[in-house]
């Protein structure tokens, strides 16, 4: 691990500090301002819709100006959007809050590329571990995010407005770190515009499964995580308990980053992704078994653990689907798939938990998990077929 890679780990941590805090508070602020209850998670949805809408623009800026400048632009947008969120909370403007989170999606789309930048900065035999370790940087968010949300909840007269102001400071800190990182130079313009058409890249079985597993795994995680603070509030549990549950969830998401890369190198990508899928199914079974604090803690921890295996595995799998000169368009397409599914899951989260309840929300998540299982099985069969021939 080079010092520059460690700085990228820290940037990943600050990025997920933003994400975890947004998840912890946007639904609750949305619930207090929304015209009707089912709209509560629209600010959560706005964040990922903004990410989906920004993937093409981010791919363009990454190709034209390289990693560093594009990442810095994302952080400038993060500062501006957090300040706008704070103003919306102060003035009780629900739709301004939604618009601000859509704008923040540009930062989300940028920072989602940290994991690919890590692979590019690593030696050929260290790429899986580099991706995994940068993902482990999210542990910073696991600790800082819930504590930031709880500690700044009453910082101002308006609940959680102080948290948005604090997140603007987090983005400024990330700007300083990005400025210190030396990224590999972008490909020459001729090489960057070359490669296969995106349609050809996306038709590869490895790309299809990487996109499906990454998007559906992230979607299920977002579906359940975004609904958790609302469900716990309905169950009469205090916000401090919800913050603690989210903290353990994010620990589950990123603590395995210190060894997921080793497991992938030893056992293979698809088996580790299958373990992640199994952990998510166990999470659902625990969640529907009760609504005490311990049920929320254990199910959300396993949800995070399963997500780590699925998402790190899908990222590693995706690295085999494109050439260096194709990376911007391929990574943009992968992230668009993720954001599109997350947008649907964010809206469904608020609608289902407020109309159908926590149990039906969890049972509904078994459908995308089943699709993920079919995709993994299909690729395993296809990869074994040539070997058996």
Structure description:
- By secondary structure, the protein is an all-alpha fold.
- It has one domain: MFS general substrate transporter like domains (Growth Hormone, Chain: A, Up-down Bundle), CATH 1.20.1250.20.
- Helices cover 81% and strands 0% of the residues.
- It contains 17 helices and no strands.
- Helix 1 (3-33) runs antiparallel to helix 4 (114-121), helix 5 runs antiparallel to helix 12 (260-267) and helix 12 crosses helix 13.
- The longest helix has 50 residues, at 42-91.
- The chain is globular.
- The protein starts with a helix and ends with a helix.
- The model has no long low-confidence stretch (mean pLDDT 87).
Topology:
Blueprint: H1 3-33, H2 42-91, H3 94-111, H4 114-121, H5 127-136, H6 139-151, H7 161-180, H8 189-192, H9 198-202, H10 205-234, H11 239-254, H12 260-267, H13 269-287, H14 293-318, H15 327-355, H16 358-364, H17 366-388
Helix pairs in contact: 1-2, 1-3, 1-4, 1-5, 1-6, 1-7, 1-10, 2-3, 2-7, 2-15, 4-5, 5-12, 5-14, 6-11, 10-11, 10-14, 10-15, 10-17, 11-14, 12-13, 13-14, 13-17, 15-16
